[in-house]
């Protein structure tokens, strides 16, 4: 009888150890990883917004995003997504959306510049051109979005916003 009792006691002890291990894995470890990732947080910024092509049916806008990887290991830019706006009086008018999903490698302690092209619809392009004409050839453009960077098995979202004047 005492062998059965000892066996049950050992099973209960093992079950409690497994439960404690699970709690540590799903509660403590994510908080630790999150603190470490904040220490090595990547940065993203827009370095250039330029008009590439103006046609009767479309307007092509190139946006260059610079992504920095301060981590001691390499990373991958997994995705870049943003919305493009222009300023009309005091309001932002939607021009288009970009979503680039090609992987781009970034070495440890390095940066990479990724160019993303937007095709803007005719009506938005006409409104933007009219705004530029009424403001001496200058129009203010804003890009708001995020870059997703994979460091090992973890993907981090890095938001950005950039406002720039285009024109004369």
Describe this structure in words.
By secondary structure, the protein is α+β, with helices and mostly antiparallel strands. It folds into two domains: 1-39; 42-167, Immunoglobulin-like, CATH 2.60.40.10. It is 30% helix and 53% strand. It has two helices and eight strands; from the N terminus they run H-E-E-E-E-E-E-H-E-E. The strands form two sheets. Strands 3, 4, 5, 7 and 8 form a five-stranded antiparallel sheet that branches. The mean pLDDT is 77.
What order do the helices and strands come in, and which of them pair?
Elements (H helix, E strand, L loop, with lengths): L1 H38 L3 E12 L4 E11 L5 E14 L2 E10 L3 E3 L3 E11 L1 H13 L3 E14 L2 E14 L1
Antiparallel strand pairs: 1-2, 2-6, 3-4, 3-5, 3-7, 7-8
Q: Quaternary state, please? A: single chain
Strand content: over 45%
**Averaging pLDDT over every residue, what do you get?**
77
Instruction: State the secondary-structure class.
Output: alpha+beta
Count of discrete structural domains: 2
Overall number of strands: 8
Q: What's the CATH topology label of the largest domain?
A: Immunoglobulin-like
Total helical segments: 2
- Give the topology string: H per helix, E per strand: HEEEEEEHEE
CATH class of the largest domain: Mainly Beta
> For this structure, what is the CATH homologous superfamily of the largest domain?
Immunoglobulins
So, CATH architecture of the largest domain?
Answer: Sandwich
Q: Main β-sheet, in a few words?
A: 5 strands, antiparallel
CA-to-CA gap between the ends? Answer: 93 Å
Low-confidence stretches: none
Shape: elongated
């Amino acid at each position: 009888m005492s062998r059965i009792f000892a066996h049950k006691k050992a099973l209960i002890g093992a079950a409690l150890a497994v439960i404690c291990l699970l709690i540590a894995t799903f509660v403590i470890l994510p908080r630790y990883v999150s603190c470490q990732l904040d220490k090595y947080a990547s940065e993203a910024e827009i370095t250039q917004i330029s008009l590439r092509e103006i046609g009767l049916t479309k307007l092509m806008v190139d946006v260059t995003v610079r992504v920095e990887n301060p981590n001691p290991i390499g990373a991958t830019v997994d995705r870049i997504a943003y919305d493009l706006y222009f300023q009309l009086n005091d309001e932002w008018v939607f021009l288009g959306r970009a979503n680039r999903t090609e992987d781009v490698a970034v070495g440890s302690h390095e940066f990479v510049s990724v160019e993303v092209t937007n095709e803007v619809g005719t009506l938005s392009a006409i409104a933007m051109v009219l705004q530029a004409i009424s403001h001496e050839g200058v129009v203010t453009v804003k890009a708001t979005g995020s870059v997703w960077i994979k460091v090992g098995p973890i993907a981090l979202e890095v938001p950005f916003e950039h406002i720039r004047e285009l024109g004369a």
